[in-house]
Hints:
GO terms for molecular function: 1,4-alpha-oligoglucan phosphorylase activity; thymidine phosphorylase activity. Its EC number is 2.4.2.4. It catalyses: thymidine + phosphate = 2-deoxy-alpha-D-ribose 1-phosphate + thymine. Belongs to the thymidine/pyrimidine-nucleoside phosphorylase family. This is Thymidine phosphorylase. The chain has about 425 residues and is an alpha/beta fold. It folds into three domains: about 5-50, Transferase, Pyrimidine Nucleoside Phosphorylase, Chain C (Transferase, Pyrimidine Nucleoside Phosphorylase, Chain A, domain 3, Up-down Bundle); about 70-320, Nucleoside phosphorylase/phosphoribosyltransferase catalytic domain (Pyrimidine Nucleoside Phosphorylase, Chain A, domain 2, 3-Layer(aba) Sandwich), CATH 3.40.1030.10; about 335-415, Aldehyde Oxidoreductase, domain 3 (Alpha-Beta Complex), CATH 3.90.1170.30. Helices cover about 45% and strands about 15% of the residues. It is built from 16 helices and 13 strands. The strands form three sheets. Strands 3-2-1-4-5-13 form a six-stranded mixed sheet, sandwiched between helices. Uracil binds near residues 84, 179 and 184.
Amino acid sequence: MRIIDIIDKKVHKEVLTKEEINFFITGYTNGTIPDYQASALLMAIRLNGMNDVETAYLTEAMMYSGDTLDWKYLGKTIADKHSTGGIGDKVSIALCPILSALGLTVAKMSGRGLGHTGGTLDKLESIKGYNFSVTDSEFRELVEKHNIAIVGQNEKLVPADKKIYALRDVTATVESIPLIASSIMSKKLATGSDCILLDVKCGNGAFMKDLEQAKKLGELMIAIGKQLNRKIAVEITNMEQPLGRTIGNKIEVLEAIDTLKGRGQTDFNEIIYSSGSTIIMLAGLANSEKDARLKIKEVIENGKAYNKFLEWISAQGGDIKVFDDPKWLNPQYKYEIKSNAEGYLKINSAISFGLVAMKLGAGREKKEDNIDFEAGIYLNKVSNEYVNKGDVLFTMYSSKPIDVKLEKELLDSIEFSKEKHNIKPVFAKLY
Ligand code: URA
């Protein structure tokens, strides 16, 4: 077999076989296929696509390019969720302890954020002492003892994706639905979960800008999951708006805690109930969405979800005393943006909020940048709340002096009207 023939086949829009796809992944991972040939094949895939079966073969080949985890010996249902990346997305921090409190096991690997989308690991790292660089045996011990652990991406897991993703980044081949689907799914499947919810963010603050593309990606990931015998569901959720009231790191942890204590009242709360009930139904713990929602409400109201959160953070070394300290979030600089108009607010651009949060220090422009855990934005008003002239709309926080020009960036991305707007937190659910 020769890689040049495989490239040529894809250039002529032919379907690749399992053996050809395995040959590519094995060869590229071990270095016998050079970057220039891999780039040519990735570009042919970006231009001519792959069918569902080819994409499943690609996913499987990538998944087996390194170690895989197997939790069968526990005899428990392992649940996972993955978001394609959004602004204000602290879903994992609130949802995982809820799932664990309901009897599911969460053994999750998360990543860092880059640019305007924050990563769960960065948010968790804002809690002093939280340790996500654990060994395989420590990870197992945490999961066995506490039914929940969120750790950093293991280097030995899916090395093919690491190499291919870096190449895609510099060869204009990121935006290919089969390549995105295989990249996400190979990592999810390698961590050995039984029930997986994929939260495909859709809108200007996300990878997928329109619903049609988001549905295509979602359907493809479901087809891959089914081919590889996993229970999988997709929710396509709104990323025209930032999620909830907070964007940043410590500030998002605090909002996740509020939600776990039953004080959530924005779209973020709805996403927790919607995604949570989908996973609970996938795992067979409830027969209807109504029943699943009641179960979530129960563990929030009886404190089990918050207690599980504290148990998890503490087991991973995090200092849980900080959550009782009103000065834990203690930014040196604060800037309130007031409204000079009135009406029902509508935020038109999640990405503007993501970029401003990044400029305040809450995210990284370059991989090596440090994060300011104090930085972020609090949305005193969210879409569909009524605003009077002079009301505070948003508050910006940072450890460095705040550039007043950021105010305009946020004000340019909102509007007001006399009527409420039709804004859905969840666009579609796919099974
Ligand atoms: N996230 C991934 O893990 N891979 C992609 O290709 C895109 C988003």
